[in-house]
Each structure stands twice: as C-alpha cells, then as structure tokens.
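S., here's the first fold you wanted:
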Amino acid sequence: MKPVVAIIGRPNVGKSTLFNRITKRRDAIVDDLPGVTRDRHFGDATWDEHDFIVVDTGGFVDGDADPFAGHIRSQVERAVMDADAVVLVLDGKHGASPYDKDLILWLRTVPKSVFYVVNKIDSPEREDQMYDFFALGLDKIYTLSAEHGYGVPDFLDALVAVLPKGQAAAESQEIRVAVVGRPNVGKSSLINRLVGEERMLVSDVPGTTRDAIDTVCQRKGHSYRLIDTAGIRRKSKVDLKLEKFSIVKALQSMDECDVALIVLDAENGITEQDVKVASYAFERGCGVIFLANKWDLVDGKSVTPHKFGLQLYDKAAFLRHAPLLTVSALTGLRMAKLFPMIDKVHQQYISRINTGVINRIVNEAIQRTEPPLHKGRRLKFYYTTQVAEKPPTFVTFVNFPDAVHFSYQRYLLNQIRSGTALDMTPLRLYFRQRTGRIEFGKWKKNKPGKKSRRS
C-alpha cells in the first residue's frame, strides 16, 4: 500500500493549497473563508518516483463557534493516526498562534514523523518571517509558498526520504462511484454505511459536505473509489460563491466516474431537483443507479417500490435503463445488494460488442422495420461498429445520416439494447456518412458527435 501523509493546521493557513500543489491537481476547494475543508480529502501524489497518498483536513481549532468543530477535530485526529507522516502548516504571513502551540504539544505525543512547514513565504527576502516559530521550540522548519511553489521541492525531498517504500498493489480495475443528489438526502450516511466507519460528517444541516471526497474500499477482490459530493441545489437557491464551487466539483465528479449513485429521499418523494440531478448524470454519459434512501420511513401500505419506480421513470424517462434500489443507510436495509448492482452496471458500462454481432442486430432490426424514404430514396445502413466504451458507443454509416428520424434512432437503440443485453447502461449511437475512415480518438466520454442519440 502507498504511504499516507496528513496535512493539518489551523484554519486558513493554506493546507488545501499545499494539497493541490503536492497532488498537482485542483481537487481541494481553496477560498479565503476559514473552514472550507471539513472532511478528510484524499489525493494521490508522486515525487522523485515515490508514490504516496496526501490527506487534506479541516482547520483544527479548540472552542470554535463552528458547530462542526468537534467533528472536524475528530477527523483530524483520525487522519493523523492513519498517517505515516504529518505536515503541520503554519501561517508565515500572520505569525504564530496559541493554537499552533497546542497542536505542536499534541504532535509531540504522536509517534509519527512530523514536518513543520511555514507557508506563505514566497521569496528568500521573506525567510526572516519564520523566526517567530522557533520560539515554539521547533528545531527544523521548512519555509515555502504553496501558492507559488517556492521551497516546495526541498520540502518534498525531505518528506519522501522518511516515507516507507510503498508496495505495488496487484493491478485491478478501480470502479469510480460518485454519490450525488440534492442536499440532505443521506449521501454521506450512505458512504459511512458502505465503508463501515464514520468517514464523512453527517448532519441534518443541508450543505454539510462541501467538497468531493474520495474513499477507497475493497469488496470481494474489487476496488471501489466512492466519491461523496456536495448536495446539488437549484441555482436560485445557491448564493454563496463557495457552494457554487462545491456544485461544480459535484458535476466534475460525474464527469470522471463510472457509476453515479443518485440518492433520493424516499420519505419526501421525487422532486424536480432530483430529476435535474439525474439529467446531469445522463448528459455526462455515466452509468446510473437510483437509490431511494430512507425507505424505513416510508409507509409501505401507500408507497411500494413498484409505485415509486413508476413515478420515477415517468419523470426521468431518459434514464429508464437505470436500476432502482430502495434502501436505508440508517438501518442497512438492502444495502448488501448495492455492490453487486454496481458491478453489474459497471460491467455493462465497459462492454465491447463484437463487430459481427452488432451488425447482425442492426441488419435484423432494419429488415423487421425498414427505414423511411428520404426524398424518394431509401436510407441505406452500410456498416455498424463500436468505437468506444464507457459508455458503449456505436457508429452506423448511412447514405443520408441527417435524414434518420429520431424515432428510428430510438428504435435502433432499443434493438441494440435488447440484442446485447445491455439493459442497465447508457448507450450512444451516431450516424455518419461513409468515408472509409473512422476517427476513433474523437469518441470519448462527454464528446457527442453531430448526429447522435443517447439512451
């Protein structure tokens, strides 16, 4: 396994900026508002051929007015206990704080390699700003600027030197699962139930989760990366700039996932915003599973899974292929069925159909129901091939591609779906003029062509 590095510190010292700098991505939300990061946030990093995992944490403050302060401290403590090395970030711009002293005293009791980093030192001329921190009894201090990169290489050289050499894990296909939905439907509770521990903060306050958080778990030889996301509200309800960033991260998580778990509040029924969230997943072409959470609170006499499904697919007809599970993250009701369902959807999502098979299905469909005439001439379907997976994407070469009516597109898609048993994954079908050349590189996820039908 890869060694783990935890980044801790008081609020607004630049922990998330350093996290982004080390991981070379922008996965952690950065803002001047203290308290942006609440959960632990994981990211992969590589330096000097050393692979390791970086954990971003919330600001550690005692007696803070934030109602989540106690939860944040618990998450920070857990991150430190799980880490191979700890990085305490100090604020070189505003100087030492009593909270820094408390953290240092605590870290001296922790049997870990600890690195004390004074951030916001962006040039040699500002190095003298670190001297105040020697008064805290520190022997070795690293000065750097997480924002500009000054001093970061020297710090990383020292960091990887103390990390244990990670053992290369056997190659396995990691299934990326995004947990999405409107606020307060139980997304974080669902992940806590799946991983068997309190990895995510859970509260009745909508908007508790602000960032997209990764959690990796193993089940029966399969690896799953579960991504908890911020609740997606209606645009008219989103006022804070920070929450807008969170929603962007939630949408990006669906761009990169294999399967999206769309969590619904079964007690409150299906809302317009639920359908909007489902449309985001549909547009991004990921596999989808609907989870009607809080089913333990539903009156079983008036609402059955069948009736709930009829209402759902009536409002979200574009995702009729997506299976529905009625579950309870609180009680564990039917949660054991979720991982097998994810496996099934994912297997279809990555499927590749033999060219001979797909041409046979399309040709038989055309023979059963001939395409309409176009300006007195019959449409001719020459050849069909699969050009991509995730989701399965097909191209049919036609003499008049723009003349194929959407109803006939839908007919062919349904025939492909039934003939290949791909009944739980989105499919894409494109029509092209026959040119003798196929540009396979363009058929990537989220890049639809000129004439297409998705289902």
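And the second, which I think is the more interesting of the pair:
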Amino acid sequence: MKKILIAAALFAAFGLEGAYANNAMTSQTQISVPAEDGFKAIEADQLPQAVKDAIAKNYEGQTIKAAYVKEEGEVKTYKVTLAAADDKTSDVLFNEQGEVLPGEEKAGN
C-alpha cells in the first residue's frame, strides 16, 4: 500500500510538472497579432486553394510571411503578406476566388 501511495504521489507531481511545462511552452510559441482593420491572423494553409494558386502563379519566388482574413457578412477578404528574396514584403488583398482586389497592393520594408 505504501508503494502505491508513493507511486501515485510521484505520478501526480511529475504529471502536473509536465502540464505546467506544456503550458509554458505553448504560451511562448504563440504569437499574438493585434487585429488590424478587422483582419484576423490565420495560418497560411487556411487560405483558399484559389488564393494559393494565384500567389504561385502571379507572385513566383515570393513566400507567404503572414495571412489574415476579414469577414463582412458572407464576404471574406484575405490579406497576405508576401516576402521576396530580397526580404522586401508586400501586402496583397484577395477575394475568395483568388482575384487581387484592385489598388490594394501595398509595399512594405
């Protein structure tokens, strides 16, 4: 009985320590991006395939640095920050069909 109690205490101690370590690691790796103009940060793999295809076709050699979505009713607008080989970035707005919204491309760095 004594061994069972000791084993349970050790398990509880290490189990809780592991949970705290996991929470600490999670909080360190999450990046909080403030909402800008109603856009919410998303993962690049959450972009519609049409947007990914448009980027591959029209922005060859650039990589997706960040992606955002803004929902207004039934309409979704995607803002994608693209990074060129020279580390210059640009923000491009797309609709759900992968079409660049006119006059919305903004250069960064």
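Why I say that: Residues 24-34 have pLDDT under 50 and may be disordered. The CA atoms of residues 20 and 81 lie 34 Å apart.

Talk tomorrow,
H.
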